[in-house]
């Protein structure tokens, strides 16, 4: 019953997808109602569908952040509205965003959609940086409560480089966007993403016994990318650890 904002004062004045009791809504639309419209009613409906109850879904959320190794986040609600004992940090939010981009890229692609219409109601994505032509922003998520202020975890790309910014406790929605833009612009100006180790390229060799050659080339099985301060690639040094003191063919 508490999925419907019209019948629960908890949702009064908050962002909604405007679901109604008895509606059957595809999961793909609920996802957009959550990601693009920040629909708190959609969060509850999704939790009930996916886990059977809000409490069960909150348990899944906390298990997920624990699996990511995050120590400064604990959820009490599925929608993020103010609740005792619920907290997070800018760093943890950025790492959750990183995991989203890395682990479910197809789902992440939804976050750059600029609008969504449901039940005849058109709403714009609340991330205003998507309209900023000076940055290639493609996500991630806004948030606002009276206690937490205006928050934005944003991500943008420039060539092979992707940055994530986290701004929390802003006074206005324009303020969170301005501070996020400052962070991303600063990052792209003073950092670069480099590819120091490439598949098929040797970076070291080791003696090998009983082989056709007396040395074995060492390399990587996938390209390695690192984001570092600009101009510091010359200072990078690769190191490795062998599993045994000697290498014996066949390897």
Automatic annotation (TrEMBL):
Query: Which residues of this UniProt protein bind substrate?
Result: 141
Write out the GO MF terms: serine-type D-Ala-D-Ala carboxypeptidase activity
Query: Would the keyword Signal turn up in this protein's UniProt record?
Result: yes
Query: What reactions does this protein catalyze?
Result: Preferential cleavage: (Ac)2-L-Lys-D-Ala-|-D-Ala. Also transpeptidation of peptidyl-alanyl moieties that are N-acyl substituents of D-alanine
Picking any one GO biological process from the record gives: regulation of cell shape
Query: Primary place of residence?
Result: membrane
Q: Report the residue ranges that make up the Peptidase S11 D-alanyl-D-alanine carboxypeptidase A N-terminal domain in this protein.
A: 2-171
Task: Please give the Pfam families that the UniProt record associates with this protein.
Answer: PBP5_C (PF07943), Peptidase_S11 (PF00768)
Keyword presence, Metal-binding: no
**Which InterPro entries does this UniProt record tie to the protein?**
Beta-lactam/transpept-like, Peptidase_S11, Peptidase_S11_C, Peptidase_S11_C_sf, Peptidase_S11_N
Class of enzymatic activity (EC top level):
hydrolase
Gene Ontology terms, cellular component aspect? plasma membrane
Q: In which pathway does it act?
A: Cell wall biogenesis; peptidoglycan biosynthesis
Give the membrane topology, semicolon-separated if more than one: Peripheral membrane protein
Q: Where is the Peptidase S11 D-Ala-D-Ala carboxypeptidase A C-terminal domain?
A: 191-251
EC assignment: the record states 3.4.16.4
Q: What is this protein called?
A: serine-type D-Ala-D-Ala carboxypeptidase
What is the originating organism of this protein?
A: Escherichia coli
């Amino acid at each position: 019953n508490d999925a419907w904002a019209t019948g629960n004062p908890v949702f009064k004045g908050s962002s909604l997808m405007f679901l109604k009791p008895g509606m059957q809504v595809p999961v793909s639309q609920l996802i957009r109602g959550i990601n693009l419209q920040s629909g708190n009613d959609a969060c509850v409906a999704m939790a009930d569908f996916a886990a059977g109850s809000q409490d069960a879904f909150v348990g899944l959320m906390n298990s997920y952040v624990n699996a990511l190794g995050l120590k400064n986040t604990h959820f009490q609600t599925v929608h993020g509205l103010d609740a005792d004992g619920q907290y997070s940090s800018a760093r943890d939010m950025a790492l959750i965003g990183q995991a989203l981009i890395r682990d479910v890229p197809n789902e992440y692609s939804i976050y750059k959609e600029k609008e969504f219409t449901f039940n005849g109601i058109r709403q714009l994505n609340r991330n205003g940086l998507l309209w900023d032509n000076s940055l290639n922003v493609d996500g991630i998520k806004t948030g606002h409560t009276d206690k937490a202020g205006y928050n934005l975890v944003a991500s943008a790309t420039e060539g092979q480089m992707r940055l994530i910014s986290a701004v929390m406790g802003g006074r206005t929605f324009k303020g969170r966007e301005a501070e996020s833009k400052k962070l991303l612009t600063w990052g792209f100006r003073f950092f670069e993403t480099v590819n120091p180790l490439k598949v098929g390229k040797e970076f070291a060799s080791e003696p090998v016994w009983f082989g056709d050659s007396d040395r074995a080339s060492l390399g990587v099985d996938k390209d390695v990318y690192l984001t570092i301060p600009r101009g510091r690639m010359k200072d990078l040094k690769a190191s490795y650890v062998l599993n045994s003191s000697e290498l014996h063919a066949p390897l």
